[in-house]
Write a sequence for this structure.
């Protein structure tokens, strides 16, 4: 009976709504609605360092890529932008780091907001590509609406990158584990960053798309999808590698991990296929451009002056490892100026569902992928300590859990692929049921996170959850409406993800697949026919 219901949903969804293109657009719309709800639930500049990134975005849109750093701390600079962005820097001053203070204390924007002035930012050396895109609305009439439009532009970009991952999953057969892994990587922190002006929104969303698309390319090869997948990978890699200073290094780790996890014959088939060369060349040029920018502006350099001599490598490594639990919480959901948190039970909820996915993936993985998962987990755990040990004497302890997100999401996605590829003894129905169950839990967890963050800014974390009065902050849309729309959007995303796990009839018919001999594949039925990828 239950399987019959599932099939009926599948039949209703088949046709145009079941195509990869429709999957992209539907997931894109739903994800954008969710990020938009987060954008309106956060007061302007209410996300950590958003003011500095906003200044950089306004400057980059005006083709000011480097600022005047004279007399300023290393990495800081001033740009000639409208007065609006100077005032925006001070908007969070009254509530940042004070979780019991609502955002109602923000001062009003006043004066000639379009007057051009020198405005400082700590993001002066950041790569301008992301900023130039989200800064486009700043070229229009200035005001609060301009800042919200810049946020929405960032949300659009992140939603598109995440939607590309949904499309990549739907292009594969036996995708229930993959859909589960993908949904688990979209944590409240990911959505909160996507709703703000912050380059890490693109870095994390791009990393999720890269992990899924790269693993699909070499572990579920399909000659008919090669061109489309390479286009997607090229866009993802260029945007990702040009987002932050550590992104080129993260890209190298991602590529190396994917290569180690896949059959070498599949990797070789992609690299030696001449159709791949133009896309690989563009990705290489994009990566080279990112490295050149970092070297030219000193994106990873510091002042060279030791300001914290007491922060010895041994102490920093020990302190960083002790913060592992907090870093995990930051990856899941720490908002505002690191002063807005989810309910404690929701952290346990996310830890449980993420742990289940990783344990299942590890259990079903072959020996090689067990080693790859172990290695990636070790790098994710130890890299923050290594990086901080080298920089802490100069800049202090500055690491945040979300900085390692591009690698952390890979653990979950790699576990999902391992579960899929090793699930010969596990029925697909079990994985699909798990997607439905976890989907419900994710809706509950995400709504709890959204509600807690909204309450923190409307009334303050320690105040009433129900009252709205003159001391309450009023977001652009009524809090009740925001909460309702966010809940509906998350319910739609969970149902959509579950329904996409039921494969279309044409996917299940053996005669619909290419009957020609195939080269080695990670799993039976997902192979790249050797005759279909000629070198020419």
């Amino acid at each position: 009976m239950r399987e019959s219901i599932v099939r009926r949903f599948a039949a209703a969804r088949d046709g145009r709504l079941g195509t990869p293109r429709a999957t992209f657009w539907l997931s894109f719309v739903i994800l954008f609605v969710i990020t938009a709800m987060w954008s309106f639930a956060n007061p302007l500049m209410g996300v950590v360092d958003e003011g500095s990134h906003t200044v950089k975005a306004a400057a980059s849109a005006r083709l000011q890529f480097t600022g005047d750093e004279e007399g300023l701390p290393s990495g800081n600079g001033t740009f000639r932008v409208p007065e609006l962005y100077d005032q925006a820097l001070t908007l969070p001053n009254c509530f940042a780091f004070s979780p019991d203070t609502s955002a109602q204390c923000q001062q009003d924007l006043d004066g000639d907001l379009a007057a051009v002035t020198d405005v400082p930012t700590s993001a002066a050396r950041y790569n301008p590509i992301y900023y130039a895109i989200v800064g486009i609305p700043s070229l229009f009439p200035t005001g609060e609406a301009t800042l919200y439009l810049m946020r929405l532009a960032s949300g659009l970009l992140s939603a598109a990158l995440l939607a590309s991952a949904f499309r990549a999953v739907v292009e594969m057969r036996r995708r229930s584990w993959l859909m589960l892994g993908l949904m688990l990587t979209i944590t409240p922190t990911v959505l909160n960053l996507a709703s703000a002006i912050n380059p890490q929104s693109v870095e994390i969303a791009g990393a999720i798309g890269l992990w899924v698309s790269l693993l699909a390319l070499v572990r579920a090869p399909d000659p008919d999808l090669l061109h489309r997948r390479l286009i997607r990978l090229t866009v993802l890699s260029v945007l990702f590698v040009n987002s932050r200073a550590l992104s080129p290094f993260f890209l190298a780790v991602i590529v190396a991990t994917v290569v180690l996890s896949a059959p070498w014959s599949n990797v070789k088939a992609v690299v030696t296929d001449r159709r791949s060369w133009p896309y690989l060349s563009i990705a290489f040029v994009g990566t080279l451009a990112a490295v050149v920018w970092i070297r030219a502006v000193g994106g990873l350099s510091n002042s060279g002056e030791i300001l914290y001599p007491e922060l010895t490598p041994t102490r920093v490594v020990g302190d960083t490892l002790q913060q592992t639990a907090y870093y995990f919480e930051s990856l899941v959901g720490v908002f505002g100026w690191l002063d807005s948190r989810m309910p404690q039970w929701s952290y346990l909820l996310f830890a449980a569902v993420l742990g289940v996915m990783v344990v299942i993936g590890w259990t079903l993985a072959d020996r090689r992928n067990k080693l790859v998962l172990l290695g990636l987990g070790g790098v994710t755990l130890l890299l923050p300590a290594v990086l901080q040990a080298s920089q802490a004497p100069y800049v202090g302890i500055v690491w945040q859990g979300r900085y390692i997100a591009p690698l952390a999401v890979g653990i979950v996605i790699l576990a999902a692929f391992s579960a899929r590829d090793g699930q010969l003894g596990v029925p697909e129905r079990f994985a699909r049921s798990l997607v439905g169950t976890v989907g419900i839990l994710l809706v509950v967890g995400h709504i709890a996170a959204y509600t807690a963050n909204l309450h923190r800014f409307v009334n303050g974390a320690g105040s009433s959850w129900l009252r709205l009065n003159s001391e309450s902050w009023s977001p652009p849309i009524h809090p009740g409406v925001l909460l309702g729309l966010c809940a509906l959007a998350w319910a739609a995303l969970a149902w959509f993800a579950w329904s996409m796990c039921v494969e279309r009839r044409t996917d299940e018919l053996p005669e619909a697949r290419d009957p020609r001999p195939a080269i080695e594949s990670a799993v039976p039925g997902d192979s790249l026919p050797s005759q279909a990828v000629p070198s020419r």
Summary: Residues 505-525, 527-536 have pLDDT under 50 and may be disordered. The longest strand covers residues 77-82.
